[in-house]
Amino acid sequence: MGKRNGFTLIELLVVIAIIAILAAILFPVFAQAKMAAKKTSSISNVKQSALAAVLYMGDYDDTIPPMIRNGTPSDPLAGTYPTACFGTYCRFGYPLLLMPYSKNEQMFYCPTDTADDPTLADAQGRGRFDRNSSYYWYNFGHYASYGFNRRYLNDIQVGSMGAFTYFGKSATALGSPASTVMFAEASGKDVYSPGRPVVKNPIGYHRVDAPSFWDATVTFPDARSQGQLWGRFDPKRVVVGWLDGHVKYTSIGKLKAPGTTVEEIDRYWNGLDQ
């Protein structure tokens, strides 16, 4: 018999079948590993944000950063972040206030927070990730992936034109920083602002609200039903950065404490947990 120089059709089909089986087994494993790496990156982002806030507090006599700082084009920040200003009015979201400590824009974005929304586009249709957008720094400060506990970490005043002004509280006035939420995964989805269309996509958002402010008239997946908390790796869990700087992957349900009063159910937000 002559020497055989190739594979038979049956042998090729067997090899292809084996490769297909291995691919079917391994691809989900690779996808899970990739998602786990993104989750680790997001946890690191929140950790860095929390530590940046701790550094900020160290420079400002233990005063927590405001969620948003209002300003004018004469503000030093306006020179660095000009597209956070509109005419004579500027709004610098907390990520802009922490940038001197973080030195890293990407840490304010979860690797999976890649969606955009038409409500954030400028007149030329440029979205929130386009650095040429005339709203780029405004969007960066207001639609980061991690929301700030605005109700209890800031004092809020309403200005003459209805704009909110935020003043950071003293961290030493809060009794339990290790169990007080500062940052958590968030989404601006379903938020209604007067005169603006409702955000439809699960983009990030600059704030989260305590359980007593959750909207009981809607249900998940409407983000208002859980104060804009939004788990990107598990719909029932979020990455949380606490006021003392540590980070924990936490059940959304457990962020609402047992009790009957606002003070009791919000105790992981209001600094009153014992």
How do you describe this structure in short?
By secondary structure, the protein is α+β, with helices and mostly antiparallel strands.
Strand and helix layout:
Layout: H1 9-59, E1 68-71, H2 76-80, E2 85-86, E3 89-93, H3 94-102, H4 136-142, E4 146-149, H5 150-153, E5 154-158, E6 164-168, E7 181-185, E8 207-208, E9 237-242, E10 247-251, H6 262-265
Parallel strand pairs: 4-8
Antiparallel strand pairs: 1-3, 2-3, 4-7, 5-6, 7-9, 9-10
Helix pairs in contact: 1-3
Strand content: 15-25%
What share of residues is helical?
Answer: 25-40%
Measure the end-to-end span: 87 Å
Low-confidence stretches: none
Characterize the main sheet. Answer: 5 strands, mixed
How many separate helices?
6
- Spatial strand order of the main sheet: 8-4-7-9-10
How many beta strands in the DSSP annotation?
Answer: 10
Mean of pLDDT? 91
Q: Order of helices and strands, N to C?
A: HEHEEHHEHEEEEEEH
Task: Output the radius of gyration.
Answer: 23 Å
- Structural class call reads alpha+beta
Work out the oligomeric state of the chains in this entry.
Answer: single chain
Coarse morphology: globular
Count of the domains: 1
Write up what this structure looks like.
The chain has 274 residues and is an alpha+beta fold. It has one domain (33-265). The chain has helices at residues 9-59, 76-80, 94-102, 136-142, 150-153, 262-265, and strands at residues 68-71, 85-86, 89-93, 146-149, 154-158, 164-168, 181-185, 207-208, 237-242, 247-251. Strand 9 and strand 10 form a beta hairpin. The longest helix is centred in the N-terminal third of the chain and has 51 residues, at 9-59. It is globular and about 85 Å long.
